[in-house]
Fold each of these.
Amino acid sequence: MTLPSLTLLGQSLLSGIFIGALYGLLGLGLSLSWGLLRQINLAHFALAFLGAYLTYQLASVGGMDPLLTLAIVAPCFFAFGVLMHWLLARFSISPFNSLLVSFGLTVIVESMIQWIWTADYRRLESAYGGMKFKIGTLYLPVPEMITLATAVALSLLTWAALRYTDLGKAMRAASEDAPIAAAFGVNERVLSLILSGYAAALAGVAGLCLALSFTLAPSQIYVWIGVVFAAVMIGGLGNPIGPLVAGVVIGVSEALTMALTAPTWAPLVSFSLLIAVLLVRR
Amino acid sequence: MLEVDRIQVAYGAATALWDVSIRIAAGELVCVVGPNGAGKTTLINAIAGLNPIAAGTLAMDGRNLNRLPHNQFCDQGIAIVPEGRRLFTGLTVRENLELGSYRRSARTQRRQSLDRVYSIFPVLRERPDAPAGTLSGGQQQMLAIGRALMAQPRLLLLDEPSLGLAPSVVLEMFKVVREINGGGVAVLLVEQNVAMALELAARAYVLEEGRIVAEGAPSELLAQPHIRRAYLGDAADS
Amino acid sequence: MRISVPGWIGVAGLAFAAVPFLELPAFYETFMYLVFHWIVLATSWNILSGYSGYFSFGHGAFFGAGIYTTATLAGSYGVPFLWTLPAAALVSALFGMGIGAVVFRVGQLRGELFALITLAVTFVLATIVLNTRIDGGQGVNLGGVALPAILSSPSSTFYVLALAMMLATLWIAYGIYRSKLGTGLFAIHDDEDVAEVMGVPTFRYKLLAFGVSCGLAGVAGGIHALFVSYVTVGETFSILVPITVVLMSVLGGTRHWLGPAVGATVITGLLYAFTAGDYAVAGRAALGFILIVVILFLPEGLLGRFIPRLQGRRRSAAMPAAAPAAPAPRRGVTATLLEVHGVSKAFSGVQALDGVTLQVRRGEILGLVGPNGSGKSTLINVVSGHYRSNDGRVVFEGRDLGGLAAHRIARSGIARTYQIPRPFAHLSVLQNVALPAMFGHAALDRAAAEREARHWLEFTGLAAKADALPEDLNLHQRKFLELARALASHSNLLLLDEVLSGLTPAEIDHAIRTVRAIRDRGATIVFVEHVMRAVMELADRIVVLNYGRVIAEGGPKEVMGRPEVVTAYLGKPQTGKPHA
């Protein structure tokens, strides 16, 4: 095994950070609904891809600047998240059954995506695609930089909101002990609707980042599930910074593994990390 | 001020309270004693809006609270210090206090309320950013009381505050309760520590197996064999 | 002539076996192959996931492991096809049990975690297969592998292979359903912690069920590999397999051995209507939609809705009338049954037990009393194995219980009731009581356990409710159900946790008489109680706890009159205020 050059290692490290940021962004919404709402929402991934495809459609076909598509996608997804939670709350189902329902939803959304956009690969060609910065010998592509910046900004923003605003504190309190929170005036129902909407909007943002950097295909939805869940579990449920940090750790590990061994063993890394964390935490 | 009229409350499948009526005037300190399983916590939870009322009425200043949504009880001026404290352990000391003043009208007074709580419980000022779960039992109880005070209540509900606390700490805490009541806040105290509770209260009710079996001034009640028998069985009388 | 259920399965098998001889067009045999194939996959999935509630989202991984085992062995190494099938079973079973060994030990979130990990496993396995010589990316062509000529045409041969596999799977599923393993799995489904405390070896059972489930899926995969004859990673490990299997079982009813088969038949029929042409995608969406509808509106499945307690009723009718049970066996001659030495237990800062030392003598009724929060329930939890103590020893019949899993403690002869009754919600009253008789100290077989259960139901006055579900009982009856469960295990030591709380005075009198009768039959009883009247009447000795420490011990009247005990209960008044 020949050791790769420093530049290659450096570039691998960077790409690991970039992909890790996307894991974190995808995991943020998931972690919030799992940690604070006790709902495991598999459909989060399908939603993210739907957002990606919508970005693609509005940008490629509609000619909009991809970043601007967020102005349409995010509010729509927020409303969708609120609606979904409101509908499901009418049936009092166990957290596990909500996982099953989200499983069904995932398949429906994926089928819908395939029906509209077919299983062919779609690539968003945007102005950002070609741009990149250069530091020394290392390249920093703009789409990935956008992803990194967005992930960091949103993670920090969510963390700050949960930490410092009354709404955030109320959400944390309600997720721990809803009846007592209600005894102090917290309207848990409204708060969970807001949280669901926010998580769905985050899926839309993640979709934008997906569209900027990746080629889209409906089957790709499932590829991300394992890695992102690993990031969420390792990072700690309900912790807004957790998925980002864990995601970057996973991403860098994967990238280094790819650089030092064969390129295609990446999925094994996150899985092994997860098993290791589970064994240690026991 | 608070009128509980012949309420019936369920606990799971069974009926826990039968035909219970109590009243508390503004600024009064009233006590409910009784053996375990008598339904004291069910009663306090019903007044706080945590348990639904199957029959009878619960009224505050004449306003019927039966159908009120749970999160609006606080606005009526009712704040609870639950059994076992039930602090938000994921939040810090200060955040727990701030959450106590979550309701709109208390929020504007947050600064003053916080100062007041810190003056009553100076120890809370020392570690405002500590997670609530890391406090000692006594400090947690103080935090729970402080949290309730932040809501600027007119009626403070205390459910077995002496549970799991060392006797000296309990003494301190009851002194504080007397102080709070002295400030004009009505208090409904449910307690196992019967002797201390009866010293504090102006009036007391005895609850047994879901029913009120006695009511009156503490000195009258202690003279009756009721309380000793309810807690200790026949042995204590001999 | 009464045909047993396995007999009926056999009869159905014979009937289906006749089909190839009808010389129908290959299309029908192929369709039936698919139905049988999905019945095997769904039923095998249900053995773990439906019975125990640990939903696996990765059945595709084990199915795929079987496919590739056969593909590799037959395709690359020329192993005769039929010999690859046991290999496929073994590989899949070991693979599953390996994962189970890690995940089943995790305490919290185990259900969700298991679902997600099994989902992730599918893609990891797909990656490994894709990147190694096993597949390598271009798929494996099995066109050259010889199909054993069992019948005249390939479609008939596959039909018969799948039929045999389906019969085997149904027999196994039924067998487990009726066995001790099945009862244990259903108990795990309802309340794993209680099942463990009642003697069910939960870890072992889950692992076993998972192994069987994966092994069967592996064989189905092996057969299917030759059926499709060109195996690719994308097709094998697609999300279609897990979701279809989950849907089929949930639709048919996960609590019944035949549920998945019903669901599989319905869905395969439906799917067939869609697979023609453009509607494949719509078919997938329909699957997702049906899953959602079923979860929301029909969570117990078709069989669960339309045949609620048929099995229960039928089974109890066949049972002979209850025979009187043997009295609780007296084992050993030690006068001291239980010794607790310096046991301490803390929970995040609160010291629930602080150096508790006490003895329980054989044949006595020991009352454990104390104010709220004094640690009584915690002590019971430590002795029964629910919690592990931080310090100290618990010695039962001369044997140190330290470090033993809760189910072993139950086996050695300790049984407990729960203050808030925790019956197994989906098992009948009779089955609830029979379970401790099977898994506890008595360790009876099913028939004897059910007779035993009937006896104790009569003893506690619940005989009329034997076939009811726990939710149909009122609080008093549920408390007595707890009692019956503890009695049915024939344990030498019974720990009763606030059996009387919430009962009316008349019910309390009845309960007191019952507890006395139990002791007269030879059991030793420790009971935690707040109803003082009962403590006074029943207890031979009492131990008083306060703040996690023993503060008094002795005869009831004498102890309850002691000043320190009075103070603990009533509190010490502040100085200065006299009272009458």
Amino acid sequence: MKIYALLAATAFVASPAIAQVMSAPEYVATAGASDLYERTSAQTVLETTANPAIRSFATMMLRAHQQSTDMVKAAAMQAHVPVDPPMLTPTQDEMITELRSETGPARDAAYVAQQRAAHGQALTIQKAYAASGTVAPLQVAAAKIVPIVQMHIAMLMKM
Amino acid sequence: MKLISIKSLGVVASFALGCSLSTLAVAQSATNIAPPPPPPAVSTMPAKPAADMEAVLDAHAALGAKPIETLTPVAARIQPSAADATKALMRAKRISTAPDPAVVTQDIAYGGDAMQYARIYKPAAPRGNGPMPVVVYYHGGGFVIADVNTYDAAPRLLSKQLGAIVVSVEYRHAPEFRFPAQHDDAASAYRWVLQNAASWGGDPARIALAGESAGGNLAVATAIYARDHRLMLPLHILAVYPIANSSKTLPSRVDSANAKPLNAAMLDWFGYYYTRTTTDLMDPRLNLVKADLRGLPPATIVNAQIDPLRSDGETLAQMMRAAGDTVEQRTFPGVTHEFFGMAKVVRGAANANDYAVQRLQAAFSAR
């Protein structure tokens, strides 16, 4: 009994507040919106780019962010978490409009700038859910997506 | 009682397992720590912003920005920023939101952690053949949110207007890494710039420190570090609405308690996540007004009228002058926190940018 209390006190010191991770439906919706933004922005830049590096990166993003959506969807179904069709947030919707408002190399540059910010946010979400998500299959999916997003960030650092 | 203990043991067991499997996972779970209880409400309403500033705040609300002080760090990091709102307004006014191609960038690591890298801004067409002056710039975000991507406007503009290399330093964020990790990274990045500036075409004898908000704090704290460690001092410090005073009774903490996009509750929220204990707030690296400020380089402090951090900059200027430093401080009317990156759509921001550029230009050309 005393040992239990001591251990509990130790845990409290190491982990100062109760974790309040996003709910499974919130995670599914947030990850789905992030992937939808990725695919939509990739399509938008592919319509106009003359830059082979951008073309190759955007083509890879189309594929990778369909795969991550499929992974999260499969995990959600396994855990009986409902999956609604993804919807862009107002900010993501605005970012797509901004891309469409640019032409030529300016659109390429805007795309890369947006990608850097968006991948940083995607990594934040996936790492947080992988660390303390409450639905195991989704947690596993998030943990698998983390290194993929990190690889995209490494590629963006060289662009 | 027994039940509670057993449940606690379960928490301990899974926590210990998490530790042994991956310390990274534990660090990341910190971003899910529940927010602190809100501070007592203050009824004072902030001054009315200028119409162009108000338009940015409206655009921010239209993007669905939630109150940061009610969120976990992970949720806060995916909120629309003031920079997002600025771009939305630019787009609506048919101003391009694409990065200005007059400046090119390159990301280079200065440490082993993924966050320890810097974005180096260089004019695409340098003005002459000689080495360029260098500005080491630290971004804002209360040490918890935002990154070098969020704060692109100021370093890009400084590089273009000054014909300078601007090194925008990313650093480890709290709560994964709490104070003084950010100050340690800021200092090691400064050392790294001193050693490497020449290889990028920079003039190591002409270096300035700059930053916004939490980054304004890092700029001043890093100058103090340079003095204390006998490193080459920067020629100038540009601190834009720095975090500099831990007093809770400063005039701006009350008159701008309910300002946007930064309010007094958010300041508490940031402190809750970036400090290890509340005594950290009294550390002179955070509470700069109580630091030894003697022998620092000339400084320019820029503040916004409608900002809970306004008094930080004003009191820091007083304390630096009292310590014998040369300081100019200006508070720009009708604007709020974060205005410095809004020059394309906010007149007061363009004025503040011009002022900062002129001050840095003078510092670099005096050399």
